User: Fold this.
Amino acid sequence: MKILRAIAAAAGMSFCAGIALAQTYPDHPIRLIVPQPPGGGFDTVARVMADRLSPILGQPVIVENRSGAGTLVGTDYAAKAAPDGYTLLLGGTSNMALNLGLYPKLSYDPVRDFTPVGLVVSWPFMLLARKDTPYKAVKDIVEAARAKPGALTFASAGVGSGQHVATAVFAYLAKIELTHVPYAGAQAAYGDLLGGRVDLFSDNAQTALPQVTGGTVHAIAVTTARRYSVMPDLPSIAESGLSDIDMETWFGLFAPSATPAPVLARLAAAVETARSSPEAVDIFTKTGGNLKTMSNEDAKAFVKSEAGRWSALLRAAGIKAE
Assistant:
């Protein structure tokens, strides 16, 4: 009985401490960790949300890019941060779902170590080719790759990134061999794609669309089961018979799992308000983003499902980050 009373007392003290923290939270700036360099999809979503969260929370929300080892460095840093609501993570498909299948052992567990503060938005990936490509459709790439295995190259924002996985899974399911050329971020990958030094690149539609509409690259297909609403004439890879590819890049804000519930509730309300603001909706929907409006309980189930689905596929394909 003494042990039970001690446990109950400790739980009560923790709850009271959480309430006390929530009453003053936040009283100093909040850091939003982005596990990728500036300029990519992670960074763009983080800055849109940070700009709108700051006035809602009454404190600066500072975007801090901590890139390295794909998305591992920044994500691991956020997982080990104090669970007080002052260090958040911009999580997405790469670091919250794909990494479980890409690495035999992770220093963090996306389901156990984090809790969603709020999912924000998603985009399909687009399979892109250099501007002067002779390949205009998925079947053209497949035929060329089968004729000369390994001759076609594809760029990515780094080993284990969403861009890497999107094209590698396509190659696995199409039973073709492509040569991977990893870069330190999406901007560097675009530099060589635009310069014609690599053949292919898969990127999320948010950052790919300006390149496509500007005529600097050629769009081959989207990686989701359905066509992209912004470019309805662009086919999906599934239409080429690769129905197992249904990949979107989604983003959301996450906190360490031990963050007090009252603080999480404060943050969740702020994220919902920021995501629903006319400015954020306009920015995201203009590039064909799909707003994620699910509850945080549904978000937990969604992240767990995504991690399980992609882990199984990546292991079956033998796609690794190291």
User: Anything to note?
Assistant: The beta strands are 30-34, 61-65, 87-92, 114-130, 153-156, 179-182, 200-204, 217-222, 248-256, 290-291. The CA atoms of residues 151 and 278 lie 47 Å apart. Residues 2-24 form the longest helix (23 residues).
